[in-house]
Write a structure and sequence with these properties.
By secondary structure, the protein is of the alpha+beta class. It has four helices and 16 strands. A hairpin with a 6-residue loop joins strand 8 and strand 9.
Amino acid sequence: MAITILAPAPPSIPQYSEDSSEDSDNGGADLQGDLNMRPWKRARHKKDIVTPGEVVTDDPQWMRGHGTFMAPGSTEIIATVAGTIQKTNKLLSVRPLRARYTPEIGDLVVGRIIEVQSKRWRVDVGAPVLASLPLSAINLPGGILRKRTETDELQIRTFFSEGDLLVAEVQSLHNDGSASLHARSLKYGKLRNGVFMSVSGMGGGGGVARVRRQVWTIETIHGGGKVDVILGVNGYIWISKHVEVAGGETSITRIEESVSSTVYSSQNDEIAPETRREISRIRGVIQLLVEEGLKVDEEMVVKGYEAAVEVDQGESNAYLGGGEGKRVLSMLSGT
């Protein structure tokens, strides 16, 4: 019987499908990448978490970014923080699960005055370095547009003093990572008539999301009136009684009618008990979202408030712990 000798078959090479690049909620960056890692590495997904010291990849096509380390003479990219992989073009970085707020130009932030200097204030915005608010970056009482003088420097504490809360915008960034703020708009300035809370910001995980609208007004029930909500991108939130501007919208040429000495007053107005209760209810909704790791933005807060009102069933109770909180979460998830 003839024996046929067959040529050996080539070894099978595992095929890995390439995922299509998608827009994510991280500024258009894809956490997984349009190219696979080395075949012997564990396949990673968007929710995979790497730990410090873990090798992310040894493919030389990648450049290391924030949260990674590369030893001299090696192509291995090693994670230095616990977080998720983020890929932007050929740059590979690890976004930490929890981190301090990193300022970006245009961010709306809520801060607290820590130190008063001769021509500026030092502001805590939750970043590794204190931010600065120059005296020239605020509106003077009366809306006067002029160069700041020595008299203004002597009266700097009449505008902001230690412990005051304010809302401002990041105007520029310095080489050391600190931010320079400005409060020249009528929607910025000292905060009064409300409650402050601190949650997770944009450092990582659930918390305040960087969206188009960070300030809005909620029409509350049970006679609470209107309540303003300011979501600072840095994770600092201010919930306060809404104050109507006399005469409606003010044009830029008549700014002096709105910018008066009361803008820098530290005295709170009288707040009705009904308004206090609704402010506490909104605060409870935000706290519930943060505890469950959900993002905090206008849509989620408004939906959460409506669910809390429905769960309340006319009892006028702002408490959202225990069974009430679980029912609110089930209504938000649609289950």
